[in-house]
Design brief:
465 residues, alpha/beta, four-stranded parallel sheet, four-stranded antiparallel sheet, RNA-binding
Length: 465
RNA sequence: GGCCCGGUAGCAGAGUGGUUAUGCAGAGGACUGCAAAUCCUUUUACGUCGGUUCGAUUCCGGCCCGGGCCUCCA
């Protein structure tokens, strides 16, 4: 082994369909945009995947560069929201405000850092209108019957991200072409609102924006006309990101919107794609009632972000077991001085190579094994610090290990800590007088309450099993 | 129809042209009053048929199987 060398960052770019070295536009400020949620319902585990995966990207970039600006939008104007409002009788603001709050606290529970900016679409209507006017002036958009549409044929190299030409997509279209479109591929920038939908005054009458324009307008506002990385779920490649590119590049006259496009794979349930429309989804909020957020996070990281991830309860319990092992390694030497440790090179390398989180996790386990095996205290503490610093990059192991193992608050029927400590004391007394029958009875009693004891040389610790 | 991904041991899941992934589960052992945790040893692999090669799970091609996208979608 030579001296430890850290690889440079490289990521798979959807646009060029290959792994490319990361070359910042501006080393002093890395600019990252990730498509955020449409706030009308609880986030499901599939919505959480890009949040967690690109949270690691954010952490990694922050480790590499002095400043990163991370923008994740909140889509709070959308026909699905309108429909939810109509059906529930609740106001749109009520729904979007509450859903946003739940989303933020759920993602927080998953250990995702808060983005630097979380712009809401409804607070950027003016920027969108401005951009649409710009597109019209340049001949890329037209108005018809209250709708403003982007004219796809006006952009000669449309379709590069998704790798399909215009004829192909028209030939394969599953949906009838709206009669007001000049070209079947054209898409909506602005549409009219009646009394039943939210709207804003615009040069084209009272209306609301189309789906794609918010990301173009808000990324421009916070990150500029061209920025480093644009990321999101794989299903956003077409049409969402393709159309964002069309809007931004045509409005600004740039040759690219983002330098690098990253997309995470789907989460499946029982091998099938999970989606709100299919109804087969697990919400993060629901999962948090049964599992620590860190476990849910670990499970999301156990597969490579571009590969499909099959979600299962088995996967969660595997993740929990894996975290138990990591926390156990930290636990055996809880209070030692910090060593100003740096993340392990192997962990950094794994993440630097297109966010290889499964490999990074395995390196964490190797470090944990090294901690367990270390005979020298000094060495053990050093590796332990390295483990903790490495895990930070993955947003893991940030709790006190005792808190991790005593996750009692999760289950309402669990005994209190005081009750457990009391029983342990009784058992200790029994053990002192070698009444092992009684000692074992007490342990069995605790076990039946979900508490596992661990005797060490001079003390007994416990954990929730 | 067009385009794009995969198929690795019991499960999950990396990776590599020849050398241990990793976690869980299984087997044996150490430690323990007994356990738990930990440590040691250990059993199951690379869809299929060809090609390139001294050598392929790893590269190339055919085939089989599975999945996704083609204007709701993370």
């Amino acid at each position: 082994m030579g001296p430890s060398t850290v690889k440079s960052l490289s990521f798979y770019d959807t646009f060029t369909r290959r792994k490319v070295p990361f070359v910042p536009l501006d080393k002093s400020n890395i600019r990252l945009y990730v498509c955020g949620p449409t706030v009308y319902d609880y986030a499901h585990i599939g919505n959480a995947r890009p949040v967690v995966v690109f949270d690691i990207l954010y952490r990694l970039l922050k480790h590499w560069f002095p400043k990163v600006t991370y923008v994740r939008n909140i889509t709070d104007v959308d026909d699905k929201i309108n429909e939810r409002s109509r059906k529930s009788g609740r106001s749109i603001k009520d729904i979007t405000d509450e859903t946003t709050k739940i989303f933020q606290s759920d993602m927080d529970a998953l250990g995702a850092l808060t983005p630097d900016v979380e712009p809401r679409a409804t607070e950027h209507i003016n920027q969108m209108i401005e951009m649409i006017e710009n597109l019209m002036e340049k001949g890329h958009a037209y108005e018809t019957k209250g709708h403003v549409l982007f004219n796809v044929p006006s952009m000669t190299d449309y379709g590069q991200l998704s790798g399909r030409n215009r004829d192909e997509q028209i030939a394969g279209a599953r949906v009838d072409v709206a009669p007001y479109k000049n070209d079947p591929a054209d898409f909506i920038l602005w549409k009219p609102s009646g009394s039943d939908a939210p709207g804003w005054h615009s040069p084209w009458g009272f209306g609301r924006p189309g789906w794609h324009i918010e990301c173009s307008a808000m990324s421009k506002m916070y990150l500029g006309e061209t920025f480093d990385i644009h990321a999101g779920g794989i299903d956003l490649i077409f049409p969402h990101h393709e159309n964002e590119i069309a809007q931004s590049r045509c409005a600004f006259g740039t040759c690219r919107m983002a330098n690098l496009w990253m997309h995470n794979g789907y989460v499946t349930v029982e091998g099938e794609k999970m989606s709100k429309s299919a109804g087969n989804f697990y919400t993060v909020n629901g999962l948090l009632k049964d599992w620590p957020g860190e476990t849910i996070r670990y499970a999301l990281l156990s597969g490579h972000y571009r590969a499909p991830l099959n979600y299962s309860i088995k996967g969660l319990s595997d993740a929990q077991a894996a975290l138990d092992r990591l926390y156990q390694a930290i636990r055996i030497s809880e209070d030692n001085g910090h060593h100003n440790a740096l993340p392990g090179v192997s962990v950094l390398d794994a993440l630097a190579d297109d966010l290889n989180t499964p490999l990074a996790l395995s390196e964490l386990h190797k470090l944990a094994g090294a901690v367990n095996k270390a005979s020298d205290n000094e060495v053990r503490n050093k590796i332990r610090s390295e483990l903790i610093e490495s895990a930070k990059l993955l947003g893991l192991l940030d709790k006190k290990s005792e808190d991790w193992f005593r996750r009692g608050a999760l289950k309402s029927n669990s005994p209190t800590s005081a009750e457990i400590e009391q029983l342990i004391l009784s058992r200790d007394r029994a053990r002192e007088i070698k009444d092992f029958k009684k000692a074992d009875e007490i342990r069995d009693e605790l076990e039946s309450m979900g508490v596992t004891l661990e005797d060490s040389k001079n003390t007994t610790t416990w954990k929730m099993s």
